[in-house]
Design brief:
Largest sheet: 6 strands, antiparallel, barrel
Distance between the termini: 41 Å
Strand order of the largest sheet: 1-2-3-6-5-4
Number of domains: 1
CATH superfamily: Bacteriophage SPP1 head-tail adaptor protein
CATH architecture: Beta Barrel
Strand content: over 45%
Number of strands: 6
Helix content: 10-25%
Number of helices: 2
Shape: globular
CATH class: Mainly Beta
Amino acid sequence: MRVFSAGELARLRGTQEGAMQDTCVIHAYSSTTDAYGNPTPAYTPGAALACGLEHVRPDEVQGSGEVAVIDAHLRLPLGTGLDTRDRVEITHRYGEALAASQMFEVVGPVKRGPSGLVVELAIV
């Protein structure tokens, strides 16, 4: 199988990033310890960035008798820093500000493709 050339990868990435019509903010995870030694999570919002959100119907990820744990797939540009403990806030859809933003948690590993990153999300 032939590998992509540098030019092909650049075009793929440009097309992918040009198709990201949504805006999100990654909230970086950190934690402190309470008086009883239990971790207390905290989330620090970063800068807004272009992304592509695709909501998933429960029957697409749910088998017989299983509870769906994935609500959406999110495309991000390569090089985006994202930890599996972070949260993602969707602030704009198709270039328009949402009346109320949507907060998601990352479910599973960050997947890297030739033109971007893909993560699965669950509503918080």
